[in-house]
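Record PF04134 family protein, 142 aa.
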Amino acid sequence: MAFTSSGLKDSDIVFFDGACNLCNASVTFLIDIDRKKRLHFASLQSATAQSFLTLTESIDLLGEGASIILYTKGRIFRKSRAILEILRLVGLPWSLGYAGIVIPPFILDWLYDFVAKRRYRWFGKSDSCRVPTAELKERFLN
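=>
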């Protein structure tokens, strides 16, 4: 499904590193806590992510440290800001984590980069991307 024809430009889309075990576990967690089913997901390695890349600014989606990117309301959030915005979107009690916005971005992004650069070493890497179950297929855009 192409990003342009899908009508998903107004959706909340979490792009994640499909080979990253930490990222896949995070997606599972987000699916569990997103009771309103606002979030859609696509791996950074997918055709959906590549279509997205051509429609937006030139982002190195697979660059070092790229593990989670949020697209919401026409805006792109990366690194720690993406995580804070995702927490805000899923609602209480998780949205309370958005209070972290008061911490200077350079501190949060340093922490994000510290984990992102070590995520494969600490949590492992998968040779294949996640395949959603039948009931979750509507949430994945691959």
